[in-house]
Every structure is written in C-alpha cells, then in structure tokens.
Amino acid sequence: MSNAAASVTRTYPRRESIQGRTLDFRLMTPDDKDGVLKFARSLPEADLVYLRYDITDPARIDDWCANIEAGKTSTVLVLENGAVVGYGSVHHHQLDWSRHIGECRIMVNTELRGLGVGRYIGSEL
User: Fold this and answer.
1) pTM of the complete model
2) Is the distance from CB of 87 to CB of 32 less than 8 angstroms?
3) 73 Cβ neighbours under 8 A, 6+ residues apart
4) Could you give the CA distance from residue 72 to residue 68 in angstroms, rounded to a whole number?
5) pLDDT value for 52
6) What is the C-alpha separation between 100 and 113, in angstroms, rounded?
7) Which run of H or of E encompasses 26?
8) Which residues share a beta bridge with 86?
C-alpha cells in the first residue's frame, strides 16, 4: 500500500451530491436499528438472498450492532432525507492468522441503483 493510500481518512457524517441526489454518509450505530430494518424490508425479496444474513430479522440487526461495537464489522450508512437508502460493510475476519482479510458487502435501494452510489460506497470502504 502506498503512503498516500495509508494516510486516507474519512470524517463522518458527510454530505455528498451524487447524480443530483443529496446523500448523507455516516457510521452505523445501534440507534440505527429501526432505520436499517425499514430499509431491509423495502428490498426486493430476490435481493435478500445475497445478504450475509437475514437483516429483516431484528435479532440479526442486534447481532450486527454487537459486531460493530466489538470491532468485527465497520458499516457506513447512506441516508436520503433521514431514511437509510444503502450501506456498505466490511466484515473483518477474526482468526489470528487472517485478520488482514475481510469481506465487503454493499446494498443500495432499487431507486438509487445505476447512479454510482454503490461505487461511491465501495470507495468509502
């Protein structure tokens, strides 16, 4: 990794304009449970099979938040007018010999797809 890449930091919350849409980016906290549930339940059923686990289940959101608090997961939420419209997560591998490995997940609501929001989330992660 170059020195420039190693020194990149993000400050949240942050507002961005993407394709004429004003979107807020911030880190997820346990207080976001209801907003994330509403977002998850708005997704087409076909999208849900690609998720790491069933985030339409409140208990799974609790697990997700516990992983964030434990440093096992980092999640950036995307909001439009206060509503969650997407997220990006890095799930850190927990085995001692492979903690440098992680899994990225990005999900954007159907209305914002094709505008580059997912690509933007990827650059945040």
Assistant:
1) 0.86
2) no
3) 64, 67, 89, 90, 91, 92
4) 6
5) 74
6) 30
7) strand 21-27
8) 78, 108
